[in-house]
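ingest -> validate -> predict -> emit
validate: passed (alphabet ok, no gaps, 118 aa)
predict: started
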Amino acid sequence: MNAVILKTAALLVLSNCFMTFAWYGHLKGLKTAPWMVAVLMSWGIAFFEYFIMVPANRIGYTGGLELGQLKIMQEVITLAVFVPFALLFMGEKWRWDYLWAFLCLVGAVYFVFRGKAA
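emit:
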C-alpha cells in the first residue's frame, strides 16, 4: 500500500503543478490579455493536469485508498504546491495563515487515515 500512496502522491503533485498554473498563472502572465485567451490557455494547461490526475486517482483507488483519503491527499498537495507558487511565482507575501491552514489539513489527514491499513 505504501507504494500506491507514493505513486499516487507523486502524480498528484505533478498534476497540481499544472492545475495551479492553469487556475492562477494567467493572473500574472496574461493579465492584459482578453479573458477568452486566458480561458483557452488555462484549458490547454488543464488538459495535462487531467491527463496526470485521472491515472493518479485510479491508481490510488484501485490500490486500496478510499475516496475520502484521495480527496484529503489532494487538498494537502494542493496547498503544498500553491503556497510556493503564490510566494515565488506570484510574489505574494508570506502569511502565517498558510501554516495554520496546512496544520488543519494535517488534522484532516489524521482522521481519514487513522485505523486504516494504509
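Helices lie at 2-29, 35-62, 67-89, 96-113.
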